[in-house]
Write a structure and sequence with these properties.
Rossmann fold; 454 residues; single chain; 30% helix; alpha/beta; 15 helices; 2 domains; Dihydrodipicolinate Reductase, domain 2; nine-stranded mixed sheet; Inositol 2-dehydrogenase
Length: 454
């Protein structure tokens, strides 16, 4: 298992001085700070849905020199879209490594399926690129530790796609500020409602869609046949099969993702940790209260290979520091309920409601309270925060270390449901306590030809 001593954003600079000689780093153009008026040069790797979304919102700040995707149809569509937006067509690649070889590219945005995130992120940093990577950042806890180590040793700016820290009308920053100001007394309970999943029917082996390099899409994951049913997904993530082991539906397979727990959980549990001021610590225990698995499991692994396998419904109890109880559930209104000794309130992407919020009209927070939570002036949006940090060489508000602490909770939750038992955790050593079988799920093996190039 890959391990490294955890460090926080507070000791990031000290960590750089101590550990900068451990890895070979390519001298990318962004090794020095950008000038205030300089437009950075970006590339995006993984372009379907969120990949194009993060690219589109960044055109106002950066020039895109290259795009990459293993699906040629997606690649060509987005190359034309980029040409229309910035007046110049980026170079297109199936193999992202051509992007990393280029010295003119300052930063990469990564929106591949989750099982590719760590490999591309590490190799990009070693090539001298700053990185934005979509959440959930990792497939395992060991991957998170590796990314932290490489950020520390290369000095790259690394932003995670937990946009609730910057966007959504600043509701979540206000929520954290309310708690830090004591407006609900001592925090006792947090409930993160993140929605559930839909079990798939049996999915047959199917022909790989024309233009898709299936082996490259699988990458570090085990070699398996492509599966799909003909029904097409409607709405967001559309124009792909509703049930498959690829494209949008990859989130429903532990081989490539962590289901709803790591998808939406990466957002709400991150905010819960932020409110708890738990960026440098974690739980002592994760207990599965109830859960529904769509297929039979044996020793933590699904028996069936022809159906999606992540939990469809669940309720987890997480024992957090200072005797705070964190509940993660698939039921209820998507959002976060904070409960304290003097009141409670609810926040999501559409609203923040409750008596402590209503009382702000007569008793507003002190001036600068939200900026204090944020650590300075609040950025206009996520991309703006990234480029501000590329100039200052500080880490973004959505940093690697705090994100990984939230992800460890979510990874442990999935392990607990896969094995059907509570998991004890040491938040200092970041290891499972007294359960050797459960500990084997903290890392994974990669196919040799897609191992991380260190």
């Amino acid at each position: 298992m890959l391990t490294t001593q955890a460090i926080s954003r507070r000791n990031f600079v000290a960590g750089l001085a101590a550990g900068a000689t451990g890895l070979m780093v390519a001298p990318g153009r962004a090794m020095a700070s950008l000038s205030p008026n300089e437009r950075p040069v970006f590339a995006t790797i993984g372009l379907r849905n969120q990949g194009w979304g993060i690219t589109a919102k960044t055109f106002q700040f950066a020039d895109f020199a290259a795009l990459a995707d293993v699906d040629n149809n997606v690649l060509e569509t987005n190359l034309e879209g980029a040409k229309q937006r910035q007046g110049k067509k980026p170079d297109g690649y199936k193999d992202y490594r051509h992007i990393l070889d280029r010295k003119d590219i300052d930063a990469v945005m990564i929106a591949t399926p989750d099982h590719w995130h760590t490999k591309i992120s590490v190799e990009a940093m070693l090539a001298g690129k700053d990185v934005y990577c979509e959440k959930p950042l990792t497939l395992t806890a060991a991957e998170g530790k590796l990314i932290e180590k490489v950020v520390e040793q290369t000095g790259r700016v690394f932003q995670v796609g937990t946009m609730q820290r910057t966007e959504c009308d600043k509701r979540f920053i206000l929520a954290v500020a309310l708690i830090r100001a004591g407006r609900i007394g001592d925090l006792k309970k947090i409930t993160c409602a993140i929605g559930g999943a839909t079990a798939s029917p049996k999915i047959p082996v199917a022909d790989v869609p024309e233009g898709l390099d299936w082996d490259f899409w699988l990458g570090p994951a085990a070699e398996v046949p492509y599966r799909a049913l003909p029904e097409i997904r409607q709405g967001y993530g559309g124009n792909v099969p509703l049930f498959s082991n690829c494209h949008y539906a990859f989130r429903d397979w532990f081989e490539y993702s962590g289901g709803q727990l790591t998808d939406w959980g990466a957002h709400h549990v991150d905010i819960a940790n932020w409110a708890l001021d738990a960026a440098d610590t974690g739980p002592s225990k994760v207990t599965p209260i109830s859960y529904d698995m769509p297929v039979e499991y044996r020793d933590g692994y699904p028996v069936a290979a022809d159906q999606s396998n992540v939990p469809t419904k669940f309720e987890l109890r997480v024992d957090m520091p200072n005797e705070v109880e964190l509940i993660i559930t698939s039921e209820g209104d998507n959002g976060i309920m904070f409960e304290g000794t003097k009141g409670r309130f609810f926040v999501n992407r559409g609203k923040i409601v409750g008596k402590p919020v209503e009382e702000l009209e007569a008793n507003p927070l002190p001036e600068g309270a939200m900026e204090k939570v944020y650590g300075g002036p609040i950025s206009a949006n996520h991309s703006a925060n990234l480029i501000e940090c590329m100039r200052s060489r500080k880490q973004p508000i959505s940093d690697v270390w705090s994100h990984n602490r939230a992800m460890e909770i979510l990874h442990l939750g999935n392990i607990a449901m896969r094995l059907g038992r509570e998991i004890a955790w040491n938040p200092v050593s970041r290891e499972i306590v007294g359960d050797d079988q459960a500990s084997t799920f903290l890392a994974r093996e990669s196919r040799e030809k897609y191992a991380i190039n260190m």
